[in-house]
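pasting for ref
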Amino acid sequence: MCSSCGSIIGAGQTECAVCGASVSGPASSRPGAPPVDNETVRFARAVLDRPYKFTIILLAVNVFIFILMWQTSGNSFSMVTPLPNEVLIPFGAKLNHYIQSRHEWWRFITPMFLHINLLHLLVNMYSLWIVGPYVEKLYGSAKFVLFWVITGIAGVVASYLTVRPGISGGPLVRFIFKSVDEPSAGASGALFGLVGVLFVFGIKYRRELPEGFKRAFGTGLLPMILMNLFIGYVMRGFIDNAAHLGGLVSGAALALVIDYRRPGEKSGMAMAWRVLQVAALILVVFSFAMTVKRFRDPLPASLINQPEQITDPNTQKFVAWAKGMNAAQEAFYQAVKDRDASKIDDAVKALESAPALDPKADDLRERMRAFLLRAKEISAGDEESAGSVPKKSQAGLHQLTEDFVAWSKEYNQWLKTNGKNYGLFEAEETEPPK
């Protein structure tokens, strides 16, 4: 912290970017050093003495969620090893397929609190610790929370809109657009949003800001913005540049229409901002409640992290069989939970084309096929009736669920014994729809 104005000083800095004071000692002790701008110091102290509790709360929440994800993955400690899809997707990572086909809209919100690996988390949390307090102190906690949530969502939406399977083009196209729909997560969209807020703040209020703040914000942020965009260009394919740009633009747009709290203004907050802050927090909590509700839904086999090359014939047969079983369970969950039987026919075909493994596996497959046909029959009965679901369908659905519970226990037992002998993985236990 700067001893003159109280602002945060980054590692390696020799002077405060806001007031110009020396980190190691008074500015007057340095030969040829310009005097400290007293007006800047007065302004900075009036603003930077304000609390920044929600910056700390957001930082703690991000770290806590990552710890949960890391423990769920069972991975040993590693800075750069990414968490598997089996963890990222259930925790709420953005995946266009799930948003489009399963209408999981909350995946526009939850990704801003998730991170791919430990290095990803540390970089983003360090950035939040540097940038967040300035925004929260200048605009207040309510507006800060809104900035974070809105720009975070804008970043995820931009990422969603720029997934174009099969797209081809030069480096500029690949800088923004992605040809593969894969899990995406990270707080960087919201962080770029905060940078966009400070960038516009410095320009919008340049006539009333003291000299130190003009140097720190506004055009003073251009080198950092351009450097990060250059890094994104070099590492295109690994970095979600669309999310960064979406956050940056949305943050700048918000700062154009929202005023900051000037030094000397009353600390009382307008009720409208408080209501919007609470609404944003409720939206985040509800989104994670939805991820908890769908946490145990089985993943398609194509999304399960598997070894790059599988040469063993038995393992290859198991992969094909598992794809059919996963597709069948996904279709079953959708039919029972959402009353949507649109995937059942394709799932039945996938089961019928799956290779034979052993007598028990064949029995499990045939019983899963029967469950799908029963679910389809119940769904058809619901569509024919008007109003409430017939008692006959309710009874049939209840019996189907009980039968599936018994089947799941046998299926999980088979996976723990015979299944893992095929050399690929031991699948997670399945649970009946609730």
